[in-house]
Amino acid sequence: MTGGLRPLALAGALALSACAAPPGTCAPPRIVVDIGHTPDAPGTVSAAGVPELTFNRSFAERLTTALRRRLPADGTVRTVSIGDPDQKLDRRVAAIAAQRPSLILSIHHDSVQERYLTRRTVDGMELTQTDAAAGFSLFVPADTPVAAGSLAAAQAVADALAVAGERPSLHHAEPIPGENRRLLDPARGIYAGDFLKILRTATAPAVLVEVGVIKNPVEEHRLSDPATADRMADALARATASACF
Ligand SMILES: [Zn+2]
Fold first, then answer.
1. For 138, which DSSP code?
2. Distance from Cα 73 to the centre of ligand 1, integer Å
3. Listed residue (67, 61, 82, 59) closest to 220, CA to CA
4. At what angle do helices 2-19 and 147-163 cross, to 10 degrees?
5. Residue 176 Cα, ligand 1 centroid: separation in angstroms?
6. d(Cα 137, Cα 189) in Å, to the nearest integer?
7. What are 139-179's pLDDT values in tens digits?
8. How far, in Å, from the CA of 211 to the mean position of ligand 1?
9. CA of 219 to the centre of ligand 1 (A)
10. How far apart are CA 235 and CA 205, in angstroms?
């Protein structure tokens, strides 16, 4: 494991040294915020029965606002809208590429594998929840030309979230069916995400952010608090708005 991490650590170090270029040498930041999922495939369902898409939209809006506040004057932020029910994954990928982004932040909220879910029925509706996992996870392309920049961006995001009091979850690395994801940076909860089309096809550094585990009722309650969501959104903005990845 350690040996396998060395080239990636080196890649990250190279990317970080590129970030240390003299001020003014970076292209103006063009950040795209991608709202994970679509109305007809709204992702997971929270412990309280709220679709993931609802969380993703709300957080993306807060992040966009935070980025606008922190971007340099020549920077731009675009949110890839999924209001159009036809805007499926392929179209989102094309819409992101058309923005010629310098950085892509894809916003999601997390779940766990079936074996960790407990069931309850509320008003005739079956809901599932877990207390087996909590915390953020970050996925990046690890085997594409934008791997180094993506890892550097994810490291900056993880560090800013840690300063904001958040902790990573390592549950995606558990060696069970459906998980077993490759950890690139265990201390920061960063995983290889090349199995995700939005990352595999990214033409700019990209980070898919699982903000937290909404199948966990305690975490869902916390993330539903606007103050918590705003603090996390601002951490992401602080890490990315004027950085050069
Ligand atoms: Zn998702």
1. E
2. 32
3. 59
4. 90
5. 19
6. 5
7. 999 999 999 999 999 999 999 999 999 999 999 999 999 99
8. 10
9. 16
10. 18
Domains of the chain: 29-133+145-240 (3.40.630.40)
* Nearest one of 133, 78, 144 to 106, comparing CA atoms: 78
Report the chain's terminal Cα–Cα distance, integer Å. Answer: 26
Residue 115: closest CA among 159, 201, 165, 177: 177
Alpha carbon of 21 to ligand 1 centroid (Å): 34
CA of 123 to the centre of ligand 1 (A): 26
Q: Is 37 or 54 the better-scoring residue by pLDDT?
A: 54
* Ligand 1 midpoint to CA 42 (Å): 8
Nearby residues of 210 by Cβ (< 8 Å), 6 or more positions away: 108, 109, 110, 136, 137, 138, 139, 169
